[in-house]
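Figure S4 source data
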Amino acid sequence: MGNQLDICWQIGPAGFPYSITLKQVQPPGAPFQTTLYFGSGGPVECFNGFLEASDVPGVQFTLTVLINGVTLNETSPFWTVNP
């Protein structure tokens, strides 16, 4: 517990502002959700969080991006979390 978890992405094209919503879907009932706003796509961006006891046995996230009127959805792999 307490280990840092980095979720990174790269959105393009550059020059368009976008928002990304990160929602934790595993374990069931996980309360974590946040929306981040960026002035331009292009470079790699990361969200840094920390693993908690409630994240056992593992975590999984959905990423929803809105850029230039287009919505993109992606689901991360399931990452095992050991107590």
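Figure S5 source data
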Amino acid sequence: MIVSFFSIDDELNKVTFKSEAKIINNSIIFEDKSVKNTIINLEVYDDKIIIDRSGDINTYMEFRLNEYFDTFYKSKEGLEFNFKIFCNLLEIKQKRIDIEYDMILDENTKFHHKIWVLLS
């Protein structure tokens, strides 16, 4: 299976890549080609999506429609911070996943992000 990953934020920062994936139970596992030595474990459920990145970049984000989630970012270089996400849109289809969320830092700063994943 091929995963096409797309991400854009409200400052027009974009990430796009294609990666070979394997499916194990509810998980789609593939290389994060936007950074070195990082794997994405995308867990798909009826009512939520979990994106778990591990390697040189580590994050764990859980997306449930209209819910907040406390999470973190940690890089190999030592950059570390906690933040919240609020999921505005979550659509799970057979071959496509759409997520829109706000990233909240320091209770004030918000950035809007869109992610979509195509499976083929």
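The mean pLDDT is 96. The two ends are 6 Å apart (CA to CA).
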